[in-house]
Amino acid sequence: MPSPSHLLRPLGLLVVAALVVTGCSAPKHQASPQADATPDAQSAPEPGLARFYAQTLAWQECDQGECARLEVPLDYADLEAGSVELAVARERATGGDRIGSLLLNPGGPGGSGVDFVEQAATTVSEDVQARYDLVGFDPRGVQASTPAVTCVPADELDELLAFDPDLTTDEGIAEAADMFGAFSQECLERTGPVFGHVDTISAARDMDVLRAVLGDEQLHYLGYSYGTQLGATYAGLFPERVGRVVLDGAVDPTLTAEEATAAQAVGFENALRAYVADCQGGSRCPLTGSVDDGMRQITALLDRAYESPLRTGTDRPLTRSLAFTGIAVTLYSQEYWTYLTSALTSALDGDGSILLTLSDAYYDRREDGSYGTNQTEAFWSIGCLDPRASADLADMRADAEAIMAAAPTVGEFFTFGGTRCAQWSVPEVGGLDDYSAAGAAPIVVIGTTNDPATPYEQAQALAKILDSGVLLTYEGEGHTAYGRSNDCIGDAVDGYLLDGEVPEDGTTC
Question: Residue 229: helix, strand or coil by DSSP?
Fold first, then answer.
């Protein structure tokens, strides 16, 4: 995130913020007895993969319902290189007339699908839960999958997240690149060979193994945010195996890293402006004057935190990077705007404690100083294997100038992103050459018109990139739509998942 910049992590944050900030928890369902389906070993794309496609999962009772371990190849290009294990969890369908498994990915990259299964009970409709097993998995390198990406002790991660680089000088830029280079070397040493194989293409191939092992001929899938990139990659690799697929809060996988970063900077700028306008319409807003005045007051606050980090009542002062994170976390959902008003009121009075709490919620940092997940390390690690931003100084400066012009308040936090992967300890894998998924069944792509993390234009683009893409639009604020917006979106998605009724392309809710 802002030290130095990179794409903000999408839906994983909603999971964290909903649980940490509001303290909500998901209800449990009573699983109905069902026989396990037979693994679809015949669908292995090559003979050497047959043993992975033919495996049987050993399900055991767990907090999410049932949990198991799935074995997948470490390297699909070298099947003799060993294997890794993915954590899998499911909540069985609660009713009769079961359709199959609905694989879930909450976003990230680096979000835990295993942890998401419980929250999915509050986002996926009861009708869908009645007819699908909800199946979450931790992608390779993530959380409970083994080996998981492991990098630095918590206190070192604290320092990296709080770091405010001086990006106005060659020395400051080099310092940022050196820090991430050293970080990635520690990741490689602590994680081992899997560190070079946590890319999105490998994760999408893992999903096909899981589909087969669950006994489904086609993949039914609900992916949020980065999960849409994972789903689009799956469709590009296995178009004939696409079942009912919903991609919510869509990412355009054809964008360069620079284009995606610039789009997200504008998305957060627009979301922050919407918040300021709403705040100033109330009686307790600490931001005075016009919307432009309010934006300038936020800029001044961030500059103040850079010059002299704010007190927090702890031994961790609020740096500019942490302050921006605390602001950004509340822009993912309009429900969180009230927290931002409280945080800004305190921060403008010199107290950064609420913004620090919000930042900690984003990063899943606990009160005891530990981190509840490895999502931040996995986020950086996956991002540096997928297409990287240029680390050329001239390129980064030109991009920074354009970003700052388009997003003058928050743009600085999205500049010089090439420093993160400039000295990464493993080579780039990249993405697909073709995401059209020719021959795939209809795929529903959802975009929210003022989504800060995955701007609406990306949903429009993905629906066109996919040969069978169908665009469903939610007019509103925040990140993603299904399960948090309105009945129009909910009914359209449910009709598609339950009955195969494809929404009319261009439907707006």
Answer: helix
Please pick, among 206, 252, 479, 494, the residue that the annotation labels catalytic.
479
Helix (H) or strand (E) holding 265: helix 257-280
Ramachandran bin of 97, using left for φ above 0, alpha for ψ from -120 to 50, beta for the remaining angles: left
Output the pLDDT for position 112.
Answer: 97
Per the annotation, the verdict on 386 as an active-site residue is no
pLDDT digits (tens, 9 = 90+) for 50-98: 999 999 999 999 999 999 999 999 999 999 999 999 999 999 999 989 9
Hey, what are 395's tokens? Answer: 């390129």
Among this protein's residues, is 155 annotated catalytic? no
Domains in the chain: ranges and CATH: 40-148+196-255+437-508 (3.40.50.1820)
C-alpha to C-alpha distance for 343 and 345, rounded to whole angstroms? 5
d(CA 400, CA 413): 10
Residue 166 carries which DSSP code?
Answer: -
Residue recorded with tokens 């050329």: 392
Q: What is the 3-state secondary structure (H, E, C) of 184-230?
A: HHHHHHHHCHHHHHCCHHHHHHHHHHHHHHCCCCCEEEEEECHHHHH
From 5, 145, 225, 468, the catalytic residue: 225
pLDDT at 266 over 60: yes
Partners of 224 in beta bridges? 248
Mean pLDDT for 343-350 is 98
- The pLDDT of residue 41 is 65
User: 292 CB contacts (<8 Å, ≥6 apart)?
Assistant: none
Residue type, 384: C
Catalytic residue status for 29: no
Q: 451, 468, 485, 494: which one is catalytic?
A: 451
Quick one: pLDDT at residue 12? 38
pLDDT at residue 39, as a whole number = 77
d(CA 307, CA 399): 25
Per-residue pLDDT at 314 exceeds 60: yes
Residue 169 amino acid letter: T
Summary mean pLDDT of the chain: 92
